[in-house]
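I have been asked to look over a protein record a colleague put together. Thanks in advance; the entry in question is below.
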Amino acid sequence: MELTITDRALLAAVAEGLPLVPAPYHAIGAAMGLSEAEVRARLANMAAAGVIKRLGVIVRHRALGYTANAMVVWDVADRAIGRVAAALAGEPTVTLCYRRPRHPPNWPYALFCMIHGRDRAAVRATLSAMIVRHGLEDLPHAVLFSGRCFVQRGARYTGAAAC
């Protein structure tokens, strides 16, 4: 897809986050001299062309009182990763679930999922219930609680050519 100057400006506008107003696409369009329908159509076209992978929300979970955050890493057989990942990703307290390469012998884990809770005991209880619910008692895993909070933000693009 060949991006126009307007498309590039629209990408820059949404990269900063949507305005917290009842009609964010209308507000972006008004600032750019576009209708809400045109903003939505351009974003849909860029998504269909693969220019935009997705639009999503970044939740500041600590501000909501979820200060115990743990990455649970699992040593799951390759043939079972899809099934286990689908089960874990369907849990309401799991916000991320993805596969990463193993690095044996020190790092056998291939499946990662993030669980947020108000305290460590709540996260451990949630994890224990998930393990029983999905029959994961025999899967080796480790619970890695966050020690620091990193700034979360969406992608930022410069005028440089994308790879």
Remarks:
- The CA atoms of residues 69 and 147 lie 9 Å apart.
- The helical segments are 5-15, 24-32, 36-48, 81-89, 120-133.
- The chain has five helices and four strands.
- Residues 61-145 form a domain with the Alpha-Beta Plaits fold (CATH 3.30.70.920).
